[in-house]
């Protein structure tokens, strides 16, 4: 089975991952740790 990761898909995944990581710096309190999900997406 071939992996379905094209160039557009890869760029979208990187952008979403970086957006989630940025939540660590933008949000306050306990909800900011949701941004750690972004470290697993990149």
Strand content: under 5%
User: H/E series, N to C?
Assistant: HH
Average pLDDT over all residues: 77
Determine the structural class based on helices, strands and strand pairing.
mainly alpha
Q: How far is it from the N-terminal to the C-terminal residue, by CA?
A: 23 Å
Total count of domains: 1
Rg of Cα set: 13 Å
Give the helix proportion (percent range).
Answer: 55-70%
The best one-word shape is elongated
Topology:
Layout: H1 7-26, H2 37-41
Can you characterise this structure?
With 42 residues, the chain is mainly alpha-helical. The chain has one domain. Helices cover 60% and strands 0% of the residues. The protein has two helices and no strands. The chain has helices at residues 7-26, 37-41. The longest helix is centred in the middle third of the chain and has 20 residues, at 7-26. The mean pLDDT is 77.
């Amino acid at each position: 089975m071939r992996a379905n990761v094209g160039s557009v898909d890869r760029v979208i995944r990187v952008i979403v991952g970086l957006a989630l990581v940025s939540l660590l710096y933008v949000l306050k309190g306990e909800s900011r740790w949701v941004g750690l999900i972004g470290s697993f997406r990149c």
